[in-house]
Sequence to fold (271 residues):
Amino acid sequence: MNRPEDLRRALASLMPQSLATVSIMVSNDGLDEPVRTICKEFSVDLVDGPRRGLGPNRNNCVSHAQTPLITFIDDDVIAGPDFIRAALQVDRTKVTTGFELRHEGTGQPKVVTPHNASFLGFQIKPPQSRVQAVVMNAAVFPTSALRAFPFDENITYGYEEIDISRKLASNGIQIAVDYSLWNNHHPSPINRKEYATRLVASRIYTTYRAYRCYEANSTKATAFLLTAMVHHVLHLIRIKGDLRSAFRTAVQVRKMWRESQRDQGGRTPSR
Fold:
């Protein structure tokens, strides 16, 4: 993204917490300047991003990481005052997630905690005995886990956090909750309308993938896909939206799935 002032604020929030054992890296998915200047200003590492969206960019960070733990803070985040210290105390064999304060508008910030996905893929279910979700901007991962089970690079925007959570959980990696981990999130209004249509496709794709691959339940996956598309069409009718967008969503989901199969040499994507 091209939000240099957001990046400057994000880095400034981390500087008072910087410790000798912490490495701060910017994977640049936007224009080279003024990002390069900002990184020099704060003496942080800069690596070229793949410029293909969130999934590829997060994998790029993992490939360059040289620490046993890794956390992802987007450029519209201002770190909580003790986030790094709390992150260094987590169990290094688990994923640990906290919460974020989401600042939108002029009212009080919304507290966003991890919620598991519903049947339709919406993150609305409070975790009971098993957590299968993270708040991405307040989560700490074992770097080795993300090298073994990387982010899906077909997910370029939205729902990559629920997909990676389900992938890791299905492979036996526990997700713990620790509310001493928290950050402030100030979502940027830039390109929100464009992202809205991509979010629907990402939700349907990631949920279908979860049932088909992580749960190995093709019947459930097919039932979900049919239900999700009907649900989307009914939603568009209710809000008097453009029904043609449902077709575009279906095409996008199909494209994402076919690309994931191509990545696996024509096989159904594995865990």
Observations:
- The longest strand covers residues 175-185.
- The chain has a mean pLDDT of 92.
- The two ends are 29 Å apart (CA to CA).
